[in-house]
Amino acid sequence: MRAYLLAIFLLCLGAPSLAQKIQVVSQTDGQPIFGVAIYNTSKATSTITDLDGFAPLDAFTEIEPIVFSHISHQTTTLTKGQIRAQNNTVRLVVDADQLETVVLSVSRFAQDKRDLAQKVLSVTQNEILLTNPQTSADLLESSGSVYVQKSQLGGGSPMIRGFSTNRVLIAVDGVRFNNAIFRAGNVQNVISIDPFTISRTEVILGPGSVVYGSDAVGGVMNFYTQKPAFSFVDGYSFSGNVFARYATANNEKTGHLDFNIGLKEWAFLTSVTVSDFEDLTMGSHGPDDYLRPDYAQRIAGEDVITTNTDPEKQIGTGYSQINFMQKVRYSPNKKWDFDLGLFYTKTGDVPRYDRLIRRSNGDLRSAEWYYGPQQWLSANFELENSSDTWYDDLTFIAGFQQFKESRHDRDFGDTTLFETFEKVNAITGNLNFSKVLGSTNLFYGLEYVYNKVRSRGQQLDITTGAITPDASRYPDGSTWQSVAAYGSHQWKVTDQFTLQSGLRYSHVLLDATFDDAFFDFPFSEANINTGALTGSLGLAWNPNKSIGWKANFSTAFRAPNIDDVGKIFDSEPGSVVVPNPDLKPEYAYTGELGVTFNFENVVTLDVASFYTVLDDALVRRDFNLNGETTIDFQGEPSNVQAIQNAGSARVYGLEAGLNINFCEALSLRSQFNITEGLTKEEDGSEVPIRHAAPPFGNTRLLFKSKKLQLNATLDYNGQFDFQDLAPSQQNNAFLYATDANGNPFSPSWYTLNFGGQYKLSDSILLTANLDNITDQRYRTYSSGITAPGRNLVLAARYSF
Hints:
- The chain is mainly β.
- The protein has eight helices and 54 strands.
- It has a 22-stranded antiparallel barrel. A five-stranded mixed β-sheet has the order 10-16-17-14-15.
- The chain starts with a helix and ends with a strand.
């Protein structure tokens, strides 16, 4: 009898727990899943999870099966008793065979991908764990739709639809990552974003200026980092991961730790990653032009050329990096959510490999060329609120970022080390709203961006230690500001037809004062006060489950930044870029058309085409200062150049994706991209655009079971002959192989890769990848460093 009464007492004690809310989370990372349909087998009773994965189960009986269904996760059926035994938490398994339909980045709020007029691709945390990217640049490259250029091992510059650097925009948790000194040349800052902290990456292919403003010409890359998880038991919860990885091609040694402390209303997430990369070894089969036969050393106070005993090892590529993230989250109720994120990343010195292999009269030109520690400090605050007033959902994001970088170069045999130091303080704030009015979704908001640039230059005599002031790279104390308002509208005309439109007005202010101590400029300051109006109009038509059409026309712009207006640097041997205060924004006009065929979720074919016209393009052209076309720069007569609104370009291409689900365990994924681009020269002729990549893509064969995943990948890249290279690349022969006529060209290449992931237990995950199995020696287009040769990557993760 006592046992019987005790059982009744425990049952009564436990029953009210399900009267409270339960939470549905991902089994992979513990993150909440919104939009989960919860219903009984007769579908007479149903509910849906909110943005934090919560839902009440009061309406369901104690013993009936409850179905949990979500488009990107496997359907699960549980009873209240089973849910109670799991601490009122339902964990869903990601279903990679299903198309991901929820997109966050296009309007800053969740939307169904089928209703979008633009093409958006996603990289999930599961894919990151399987492919094991060393950096976020490698993560983007694994998507098969983003091309990555590398000038050194510590870098990676994304290229989307023929645009790169300051014509593509990066955002981290909704905060603009681009700053006022992002240049037209390749930018390597994306490596500051730690792949271990990313829960999801979304890439908008094509313009995104309506929501993101300046720079979003070719595309937008959104990195969403993990959020702290709350506790669903009394007291607190504690969980985390320990991760270790080793790669043979550069003797990578990476260690990672993250842990989460969850309370009922508060949650804390800490993440630390430390990496050390030694010199990178290239493959054995490919052009001898890429070998590293010798390198510069300083021995006993003298610069000497040393023969490389292993020419496949790229001496002068290794570097180290540390990443730290701390997040604090507070949610007093389902209407309010506060999230504070702190990020800090710092590299060691990063050798600029492509500059170290340049030659002058047959000899190495540079004895030293390296970037000093690249630092990124970021603090961002995000507030989310749901209401039933003049908005349904509100997000307010405020961020402070500080970027530090420096450049150090010394010619072979010279004792003077030229150094420049830059620091950018960036403040951003955006306020965004969404409102549902019947069949219409409204999205609108405001944004403010402020950048201040500090810059100084000096010459260091490496023998005496004497320091002499020198010209800074940028005008010290210059500022760049943007104020904007935007609105977009999604109208679901019918269940099959959706119309989307948007407008944004941005006003940009730039102020810079030039120091005349080193150069006699014919101007003393630059003041830009300009506005830009951009818009978009698109439609998505899904006449049935098997076919979907997308069409979109949009405009985008890029306002001149401090790098465009005020930079002084050596663009190439014998040339120097000088400031030009007379600049205005460049504009892009893009049309795209796409179609998706879906045959019972077994075979899916996705094809999209695009055409972009770029007007008033900011390009580097010959210039003069006070009538002088040649000036002395760092002791060398140099041709004068400047950024000018002197160009126009057209870029067009085709993107195709194929998914085949042979069965529940076996699938194939393939992506292929063709981009062509032409820039109009001063004489009216057209030449290839610099950042249009050769045809490229990848094909993956995936096998997965409950504990094992296998991944066989073919990465491939087409050839660029000499006439396909942009003029600037034709002049950089040291980056390329040499054809039969003695001209530089970029050969085609492929790699075969195989990887596996085995879940040894609920806590232990083992991963192994063998990349570039056939040991190919190749360089991605426009890159100054040769890619890794055969590379064995071993990793282990322990979850607690």
